[in-house]
Amino acid sequence: MTVRVLAVADEVDEGLAAGVSGRRSADLILACGDLPAEYLTALMNATDAPLVFVPGNHDPDLSGYRQTRAGLITRAGFPARVPWPLGAVSADGAVVDAAGLRIAGLGGCVRYGPGPNQYSQRQQTRRARRLSRLARRRARRDQHGVDVLITHAPPRGLGDGDDHAHQGFSCYHDLIADLAPRALLHGHVREGGDSGARRAGATTVCNVMGWRLLDLEPGSGVLTDVRGGQRHAV
């Protein structure tokens, strides 16, 4: 079964929720950070597709929110309104199943100043190891590995920037090796004119800044970019 994914990050495209050809057929939206909640809500409403996301460095701090057994969202013990779209699911440090895909995620970027969702290389390494253990436990239970890894920043040396703020995380290479996802989708870095697709072993590393429409065949490793009604291998 081919799953059509609308992947978005960093840049708002006002025309996307209003009628871009092909995007209404999306089965799943994967958001890789730094996008307003109102924009993501509009995409969910337009596609009627579930949305799974990780935060970027310009997104609010998402830590500390809890859902009670009664369904009430709290923070620090008090009722709270979440800063993400209602119905969307955070994959930050988590493993999520949606639209037939298993998604693991890590948000944030390399720490370059004050603000949330920024981590040192060592901090993100610890987070990556926790995520790897979680994903492997899930896979042992149901024999379903991770199909897609979504992050905000790229792996170090694979499409990251020269400046410190846009460097990638070195630990993502080990995470890719551990989980062997079909694809890693990220944003954070503006591409210099190429397709934004690279390889790390059998994993396709794809920059989705703005938006990309992708077809993924779970279990096959095949990832296809859909542009202008045409399908292009990634």
* Major sheet: arrangement of strands: 7-3-2-1-16-17-18
Query: End-to-end distance, in Å?
Result: 18 Å
Q: What's the oligomerization state?
A: single chain
Calculate the mean pLDDT score and round it.
89
- Main sheet summary: 7 strands, mixed
Q: How many distinct helices?
A: 4
Structural class: alpha/beta
Question: How much helix is in the residues?
Answer: 10-25%
Low-confidence stretches: none
Cα gyration radius (Å): 17 Å
Compressed to H and E, one letter per element, the order equals EHEHEEEEEEEEEHEHEEEEEE
Question: How many β strands by DSSP?
Answer: 18
- Beta content comes to 25-35%
Outline type: globular
Secondary structure layout plus pairing:
Blueprint: E1 3-9, H1 16-19, E2 28-31, H2 37-47, E3 51-53, E4 65-67, E5 73-75, E6 78-79, E7 89-90, E8 95-98, E9 101-106, E10 109-110, E11 118-119, H3 121-142, E12 148-151, H4 171-179, E13 183-186, E14 197-200, E15 203-207, E16 210-217, E17 222-227, E18 230-233
Helix pairs in contact: 3-4
